Every structure is written in structure tokens, then in C-alpha cells.
Amino acid sequence: MIIGVKDVITRASIGNVLCKRGLLLIILGMLASISFSSSAVTILTAQEQVNQQAQETKKENKILSSETQQAVAREIAQGVLNGGETFDPLSAISWLTRLSRQTSSLNYEISFVLNIPGKDAQPFLWRHAKVDESTQIEQLSLLNGPGFENIRVNGVVSVFQPGYPAYSMYGSAIDGPIPYALLHEPDKLLKSYQFLLVGRNRISGRSAQQIRITSTDKTRYGYNLWLDEATGMLLKLNMHGLDGKLLQQIQVTQLRIDDRVADAFSQLQQENLPRVINVVNPPQRKHKWKLAFLPVGMKAIKQDIHQLAITGQVAEYSLFSDGLVNVSVYIQAATGVFQNDVNLNNGANTVHSRTDGKVQVTVVGDIPLVTAQLMAKSIEVIN
């Protein structure tokens, strides 16, 4: 029987949320009229500020002009700097750095939906809380079907997945649909991607800043994300192909920030969580081949030997990453089964396999087909 988070946590009711950063939020409240439900963050402003907002509501759904955007940014910056933070509202990377800081420091409960065209929507519940000065707890649950639940206590992640024994492993964050680097290490993406602050818009009834992310060499998918002005948290994330077609969307439906989120973990008993498994990594092996073409910023982070589950064949394996996208490359002796190139797409995921009659090269990852083809064709033998 799988023991999930529901079995070890008694969920506490979470009331209306109090905002800690009053100065910043009052300034943001003057910038736009923001309507919240009882489950959303409550922003307290004076009545005269509410009256002033009414003059701006007609333009809330439009991205502000560059001149207005800069004026808004200056006001936000003044409020944040007065609060003792380092923040440049005209810098996209500064907004992402703020997201990283808030994601790891705030107590929050977020409901979001993962939408992939042609597939059923997947609703998730994401919680994070600093229980005390030395303990952070994070939870991610898939709410449809048998579901799965992951829970992290500091540097240990416990995984509860239907049909498999529960286990724990070491990790600094839960592996979910939101890319780790965007949430925790945006600065490491600067070599591979360009970040553009597009402007101000309205998402889920909240004022948000839109940021566009594109690869520096146009070899990877692009992203658009919207960050909540008041809290800095993620409200929406779109992944799109080189042709602009939507491949994947994450939409936040509820955002609650409150110290009392920690109460949801009050009954968690760490001794009831599964033990940490000992993962023995295979020894790194230098292959006698290399890729002459790699997207800018992408590098090999792992090399070893894999036995393919379907065929049982042994293949040389390399994992490449730019911090945001991982790409796997397999090289094995040609079997003669595939005489022509094989191209498969499943949403954002691409599989490309080709042979020269001697070896079979297979590239798998969330990259465009043209990029996978270029990588597979660039295999060179190292003398």
C-alpha cells in the first residue's frame, strides 16, 4: 500500500492571507485595480488609493507602453529598494532572481494546471513552508487519477507513486513540470538564453510582468512567463515551438501566501517517511566519439553505458544539458531494423534516430526536430 502525504499530514484550514511587505504592496496597489477571491493574497490599501485605481482599470488587460512601463517600474523599484531589497524592475533577470528568492523563502500554497494540446489537463497542488529556522518542507501532488505525491524535507525528497514502493532520495528540490533552473538558478541560463521584459499584463485577475525567453542560437523552444507583481511568484508559463505553436502551458489557478501554510505540515512525522535509497552511479566513461554540433551553452554532464530496456542492446549514453533542457544521445551497433531515419514527436519531446549502416544514433529530448537532426549528424570519432 502506498503511503502518501495525505496519510501523514493533517491538512489545516488556511484563512485569508496577510501580506508582509506592506510598503511594496501598497505601491503596487496604486498601479492597478486588483480583484482577489477569498483564496487569493489580500492586499490592503487606503480608500483614496482604491479611488485612484478606478481611473486605470480600463487599460488593465493591455500591455503598457514603454514609457508608462518605465514609470511603473520606477515606482515599484522605489518601494522594493525602500524595503531593503536589490531589484531592478527594468531587468528580466532581476525579476527571475526575485522569483527564485521568493520561491525558496515564502510560505505558499499554489494550485496550477498543466495543459498539453491533445491531452487531458493535469491539476497539481504545490506547497512550500519554512517550519522553523532549520526546516523547509515542500509538497507537490498530482490531483487527477491515482496521482502521485512528492514531499521534500530539507535535502531529502520522498516519492509516492502508484504501483511502486515509496522511496526517498537526496535532492534540493522536487522534480516537477516547472523547470528547476527557472525557479532556482536563472543566472545559469544567461549563456544559453536571452531574456526580454515584454511589459505588464493581467493574468488570473492579477497584475503581472511578462518575460520572453529565447535561445541565443534559435535551436531550442521558447518560453513566455508571467510573474505576479505583488509577490514575484509565477502565474503562467508557456512553451512554444520555433513556429510559435503552443506546446505546453502551466496556468496558476490559486495563489495563497501565508505563514499558516506551515500548519498543513504540523502532523508530518519524518520517521514515517521512506528511507533514503543508496543510488550507486555507474563510473563515468570517456566515449571515443563527440558531437561537433551542440546548441550554445549545452555541455555533456554524464557519460556511461546503458542497456536498452526494449531491445536489451548495450548502447553508449551521453546526457547533455544547458541548465533548462536535457538531451540524451545513444550510440549502438546498427541492427538493420531501421534503414531510414526515424522521427517521432510527442508534444515538446522529440525522438530522432538515424544510421549509416554501422552505428545507430538516437537523440531524445525537449528540442525541435531540426536540432536533434543536427546533433545526430555531427557525430565524430575521436582519434
Automatic annotation (TrEMBL):
Q: Which GO terms describe its molecular function?
A: antisigma factor binding
Stretches assigned to the MucB/RseB N-terminal domain: 91-275
Alphabetical GO CC annotations of the entry are: outer membrane-bounded periplasmic space
MucB/RseB C-terminal domain location: 284-380
Question: Where is this protein localized, as stated in its record?
Answer: Periplasm
Any idea which UniProt keywords this protein has? Membrane, Periplasm, Signal, Transmembrane, Transmembrane helix
Q: Which InterPro entries match?
A: MucB/RseB_C (IPR033436), MucB/RseB_C_sf (IPR038484), MucB/RseB_N (IPR033434), MucB_RseB (IPR005588)
Any transmembrane segments, and where? 23-46
Q: Which segments does the entry list as coiled coil?
A: none
Q: Which GO terms describe its biological process?
A: regulation of polysaccharide biosynthetic process
**What family is it from?**
Belongs to the RseB family.
Mind telling me what this protein is named? Putative anti sigma E (Sigma 24) factor, negative regulator
Q: What gene name is listed for this protein?
A: rseB
